[in-house]
Amino acid sequence: MAKVLVIADIKQGVLKGSTAELLSKAKAIGAQTAVVAIGSNIELLASDLANAGSDTQYIADDANLELFSAGPFASCVVDAANQFEANLIWFGFSESGKAVAPRVAAQLEAACATEITDVTLDGDQIEVTRPAIANKVMQRVKVNTERLVAVVRAGAFEADEGISGTENVVKLSAPAPDLKTVIKELVSDASGEIDLADADVVISVGRGAKDQAGIDLVKELANDLSAGFGSSRAMVDGGFMAHNKQVGQTGKIVAPTLYMAIGISGAIQHLAGMNGSKTILAVNKDPEAPIFNVADYGIVGDLFEVVPILREEINKIRS
Amino acid sequence: MKILTTAKKVVDVELTIHVENGAIVEDGLQYVINAWDENAVEAAVQLKENNGAETTLVSIGGSDNTDMIRKCYAMGIENGIHIDDPALDKADSFVFANVLQKVYEKGEYDLVITGKQAQDTDSGQTGIILAEGLGIPCVSNVIDIEVVDDQHVKVSRLGDAGTEIVEVELPAVVTVSDSINEPRLPAMRGIMMAKKKKIEVMDLAALGTSLDEVGGAALKSEVAEFMASESRQAGQKFEGDAAEITARVVDLLANEAKVL
Ligand SMILES: Cc1cc2nc3c(=O)[nH]c(=O)nc-3n(C[C@H](O)[C@H](O)[C@H](O)COP(=O)(O)OP(=O)(O)OC[C@H]3O[C@@H](n4cnc5c(N)ncnc54)[C@H](O)[C@@H]3O)c2cc1C
Ligand SMILES: Nc1ncnc2c1ncn2[C@@H]1O[C@H](COP(=O)(O)O)[C@@H](O)[C@H]1O
Fold first, then answer.
1. Among B24, B108, B145, B193, whose CB has the most other CB atoms within 10 angstroms?
2. For range A125-152, the mean pLDDT
3. In this predicted model, what pLDDT tens digit does every residue of A190-200 receive, in sequence order?
4. Looking at the domain covering A3-171, what would its CATH class be?
5. Of B2, B11, B71, B80, whose CA–CA distance to B38 is shortest?
6. Residue B112 structural domain
7. Is A319 exposed, middle or buried (0-12, 13-18, 19+ CB in 10 A)?
């Protein structure tokens, strides 16, 4: 029987939704499930981890694990994978997952696949599906090893509200710190803002907004809708938006119910981060902008004129 | 400081890509330097200019990589190595990492700079696996590299909680994000000089290894089939009076798409 180990996605002490999504998929393919949680002061998460669908919780809780460091995190995952004898080891889509997965694969001599969107098992044969070439093609990948380490693409699997697990905590011993890569400082991203990955509605602003005044205008619309507020790379490069707001291949991958691209041309690298959204609305003054090729609804117009009207009309409907 | 940087020639992602019978249609495709490797090359050249370093580029791949290596010379790279062996046609990240390890071991480098991801595979694994194989530190998704002293660099990494500033003991591998720099356009003089420079070309045997040793005879995974991706259809596009079309779209979002 397949055994899936899911790496818990914990941000600021809170268990993120991707963990339940991955565990739901594991149960759907008939696997036994375990989760590994790594951090500091996270023991209280045990019941959340069980509720998310895991039957064993490997917990590495140590003050030294407060800040992310790929080496020690990988050691914890390898330890849990070996104890559980996992043959599938899944990370949710995150920068730490992308940094740790190849290390774990190298240490376990397992195959490694990133951004997978599906997994199938036929006896012992594992196969995955994943996009490549900036989402322009899909690949079906045959795994030749007994074990696979994978990073699951954001939004690929859905959480099944009906699943649950059982609490069975196994404490992991703290790994040795990595003395060769020492974190000197963490320059935190603005907290208190809505995490793009969790948001039901994401509104992103592009170079069409020109400057801070344009960004503020679009941000008001995001505030009205309690939406996540993202950006194209152009506005990050311009110094207007923080790195963690960038949507796209080098930024966040989002798949919200509603995505609004305001003043964004729709470069392939941007599309790769949002074309899994359920509904896409684009506002762009250029009728030929490539964003319209993926948008369900397109408004050809000047965003400085359109956004205030959008706010007004949306507020009318919602009141 | 001796820097090794890696570059792969990849299909130009801006072109339309067709899939037929499980394979990519090669006709009409063009190949360019992987965008993230261009950032890696720029980072290496800046370190050379600002701190004094010797820069070497290695590329593994088909025989037409010469133009790409010359472009890197024109950007300021000093030495070029081309590992050209048809046996590596189907190689995955593990195999490439093993080959890169052989190259590294021949040159005693202090710092390896790779792109964070190759645009054809979108894997993001090779640099990290290389570091594991060598047993040296690795920091991925780096947006700044600063030399501290002969034994240390300070790098900034974009992580989940913010920008991590990490001091790394050399030798080490860093994989760079496109946010690290804006790759330069080579100047005419550089392009002329690059034409005359030698490229060291080797196959696996000349590198002192074999397909078996680098894991190419027993791939951990392989692409069984390419498929067209589910492309979205263009929906309804409205032009005209802003107030009118915006009200119409909001109505559709609420009552047709039911997302408001
Ligand atoms: C390796 C690599 C990785 C990358 N990763 C990413 C990534 O993760 N995310 C990302 O976004 N990009 C990424 N890029 C960059 C990408 O290629 C584009 O350059 C970028 O997305 C462009 O941003 P933009 O659409 O805001 O700007 P532009 O392309 O300049 O588009 C601005 C748009 O605004 C419209 N406009 C102008 N004025 C108005 C107005 N008043 N009202 C309405 N519309 C207006 C214009 O018609 C135009 O379509 C990457 C590039 C590379 C090479
Ligand atoms: N064939 C190759 N030749 C040189 N460098 C490579 C090769 N394959 C991968 N790399 C390097 O490893 C990085 C990550 O590749 P990948 O793991 O395929 O995403 C690339 O950006 C390159 O810098």
1. B145
2. 97
3. 666 788 988 99
4. alpha beta
5. B71
6. 2-202
7. exposed
Cβ(B221)–Cβ(A141) below 8 Å: yes
Q: List all residues 6 or more positions away from B174 whose beta carbon is below 8 Å from its beta carbon.
A: B111, B112, B113, B114, B127, B138, B139, B140, B142, B145, B153, B155, B168
Query: Distance between the two ends of chain B, CA-based, in angstroms?
Result: 57
Q: What's residue B8's pLDDT? A: 98
Helices (H), B151-232: 188-196
Q: What is the mean pLDDT of residues A281-296?
A: 98
Beta-bridged to residue B97, according to DSSP, are: none
Tens of pLDDT, residue by residue over B57-91, are 999 997 789 999 999 999 999 999 999 999 999 99
Give the CA angle between residues A82, A96, A202 to the nearest 5°. Answer: 130
Domain membership flag for residue B18: yes
**Is a pLDDT exceeding 90 seen at residue A135?**
yes
User: What is the fold, at CATH topology level, of the domain defined by A201-318?
Assistant: Rossmann fold (3.40.50)
- In chain A, domain spans: 3-171, 201-318
Is the per-residue pLDDT at A119 higher than 70?
yes
Angle, helices B188-196/B66-75, rounded to nearest 10 degrees: 130
Domains A3-171 and A201-318 share a fold: yes
Instruction: Specify if B255 maps to a domain.
Output: no
Helix or strand holding residue A127 (H, E) = strand A125-132
Q: Does residue B259 belong to any structural domain of this protein? A: no
Residue B73 CA to residue B66 CA, distance in Å, equals 10
Is residue B190 over pLDDT 90? no
**Residue B122 alpha carbon to ligand 2 centre in Å:** 10
- Is a pLDDT exceeding 80 seen at residue A237? yes
For chain B, how many structural domains are there in total?
A: 1
Under 8 Å between Cβ of A260 and A276? no
Cα dist. A244→A147, A191, A220, A228, B166 in Å? 32, 11, 19, 12, 18
**Residue in A closest to B218 by C-alpha:** A144
What is the pLDDT, as a whole number, of residue B20? 96
Q: Which residues line ligand 2 (CB under 6 A)?
A: B 6-8, 34, 36-37, 40, 59-61, 93, 96, 114-115, 117-118, 121, 123-127
Answer yes or no: is pLDDT of B150 > 70. yes
- Nearest CA-CA partner of A72 in A180, A183, A176: A176
Q: Are A233 and A269 in contact (CB under 8 A)?
A: yes
- How many angstroms separate the alpha carbon of residue A2 from the centre of ligand 1? 43
